[in-house]
Design brief:
elongated, 11% strand, alpha+beta, six-stranded mixed beta sheet, two-stranded antiparallel sheet
Length: 416
């Protein structure tokens, strides 16, 4: 199920998704959905060229049945122009996902994928109904069978495409052989139906194998973005956020960075051992995530970056000034250092939550045997307008400087 990155409202509830957002979500699907369609893109890159080759062969050898000149021109246009357009559309796939034009992409892909299939089926039907020499009809039928096997392999990542492809390719010739006047015995029509069922089963098996492979790949990718100790996003995920946001946005975007560090963490490790230190890190990670309302690190950053781009395009007067509509990314940067990244947020509200986090940490205890371990944290908050990865990195560096300034000024405090 698709999980949209939550939009957080500090003063009020989360915004209800619009009808358009729900439609886009249903088409966008999960990360697996994108990988599956990427598989179709890779398989389809040169698959459509086979139609050009076959059409040239049947045209030059005279195998093609006699048709009107206008029909011949249409066939040439279909077999030459549409594969070129289909190849161009495949190159547009990544851009379509980034710009949320995926609905249009699906419609165009389905049309361009089925047009040459319909045309080739039409040629086969014309040959069967015109009473062409049986050798010609047989050659076209064999070509049809070969196209079916290749097409099932190409479209197997998405089963409805397989059903459409097989039905267009096999049912019309089967109907013509069974009920119309052709040189083939009606019994041959049953072979087409059996072939349809067999290839549908092959497509289903390939689809299941691909989905299992994609799911395993997605699990491995997600694991690479999550800190195994705390469950927060890790440094690698953080830099992915930076890259995606800065690649998509077209206008400066208000950002707030909160850098927080556990005070005297090395002393805790030295005195009580690393197992106790790990427990302190896990306890604080929960506080950190609860304080800033972080999103699930398993979810993709696509919607987050898109929302940032949309808000960045809004005029300054239309941006929220009271309260905060913000996307929170909570990251364990390494060791005892944590970072929260906000876009289009109310800095005062972010600071209030950071101070609440300090209070919560100050009051918490980690029980080790008969001892109760207390710890405090320090933090730095930096705010700025960014539209490049370099500017965002500078903002992070500034928050880091303020963090160490807080430690120099006595710890257990926030500098901004």
């Amino acid at each position: 199920m698709y999980t949209r990155t939550p939009l957080l409202r500090f003063n009020g509830g989360p915004p209800l998704p619009s009808v358009k957002a729900k439609i886009m979500a249903s088409f966008h699907g999960t990360q697996q959905h994108r990988y599956i369609w990427q598989a179709i893109v890779k398989r389809s890159a040169f698959a459509s060229l086979i139609y050009i080759v076959l059409w040239c062969l049947v045209s030059m050898t005279g195998v093609v049945p006699e048709v009107k000149p206008s029909t011949n021109i249409i066939l040439w246009a279909v077999f030459l122009a549409i594969p070129v357009a289909r190849f161009a559309l495949l190159r547009y796939f990544d851009s379509a996902y980034q710009n949320f034009n995926i609905i249009l992409w699906h419609v165009l892909f389905t049309f361009l994928a089925t047009a040459p299939v319909i045309a080739w089926t039409a040629i086969t039907l014309i040959s069967l109904l015109q009473g062409s020499p049986w050798e010609v009809s047989l050659a076209l039928v064999f070509a049809l069978v070969g196209l079916v096997s290749g097409g099932v392999n190409t479209f197997s990542p998405v089963m409805y495409q397989v059903v459409i492809f097989l039905s267009i390719m096999l049912f019309p010739p089967a109907y013509a052989i069974a009920y119309l006047d052709t040189d083939f015995p009606p019994m041959v029509a049953s072979y087409f139906v059996l072939y349809w069922a067999g290839m549908l089963l092959v497509g289903q098996l390939q689809n299941q194998e691909l989905k299992a492979s994609v799911e395993n790949g997605v699990k491995l990718e997600r694991a690479s973005y999550i800190d195994p100790l705390t469950g927060l996003a890790n440094r690698r995920h953080f830099y992915k956020i930076i890259d995606e946001v800065c690649d998509l946005q077209k206008a400066p975007l208000d950002a707030v960075v909160v850098a927080v560090d556990i005070d005297r963490f090395k002393a805790i490790n030295d005195q009580y051992g690393h197992a106790v230190g790990d427990e302190c890190l896990k306890r604080f990670a929960h506080m950190f995530q609860d304080s800033f309302g972080a999103q699930d690190p398993n979810t993709t950053t696509r919607c987050a970056t898109r929302d940032c781009e949309v808000r960045a395009k809004r005029p300054e007067r239309d941006r929220p000034s009271d309260g905060c509509q913000a996307i929170a990314h909570c990251i364990r940067m390494g060791g005892e250092e944590f970072l929260a990244l906000f876009f289009d947020a109310d800095p005062d509200e972010v600071k209030r939550r950071a101070l609440d986090l300090l209070k919560t940490a100050r009051q918490s205890r980690v029980e080790v045997g008969s001892e109760s371990i207390a710890f405090t944290v320090s933090g730095g908050i930096a705010r700025g307008s960014v539209n490049t990865a370099e500017q965002l990195q500078q903002l992070i560096d500034r928050a880091d400087i303020l963090l160490y300034q807080a430690k120099t000024n006595g710890r257990d405090r926030i500098e901004s």
